[in-house]
Sequence to fold (203 residues):
Amino acid sequence: VGLPGRVWKDGEPAWMEIADDPAYVGAARAAACGLRWAIAFPIRVADRVTGVMAFLSGAAHEPEPEFLRMMADIGQRVGMFRERKRGEEELVAHRNRLRALSTRLLQAREDEAKRIAHALHDEAAQLLVAVRLELDELARTLPGGDAARVARTRALLDQIEEQLRRLSHELRPMILDDLGLTPALRFLAEGVGRRSGLAVVVE
Fold:
């Protein structure tokens, strides 16, 4: 609309006497301030017009070629600055989206580890206890040799239960929910130390 619209459309600087355009927005206020002349320049990014700069002046004369070149250069620089700023804002937004996605993925993995750990600790352990009770009952009804075999099977079940308990604690130590991160890390370090014979210190 008006002078800025013409510059936006044509992509070239334009100027005019404000009094020559009755539809010029703010013409009455400009006249009251003694402003008679309007000039506008395109803001460019490469060959694309992305905005318009408009100036008012009290002097009524056509601009000098050097002034037009200077303002065209300023328009290019402003366009480059705006484009760089937009790119920076998009980059920040992209990083924020990636950070949020990473947080959700970590939370989902943590929730799944917690679910599996609880299943190992509660459900599988209960099944092993039930099997052990059945074996104890069976051992009381068998002769000595067969009872010894049942005892060996029971010992294997004890090892399985210990492995399940260890896996459950490594996936999601119950102490993590009860006491927090530092005690849980110390608990895991002690377990690794016992199995590996290494001295693991949590500071």
User: Anything to note?
Assistant: The CA atoms of residues 157 and 163 lie 10 Å apart. The mean pLDDT is 80. The beta strands are 14-17, 37-45, 48-57. The first helix runs from residue 2 to 10.
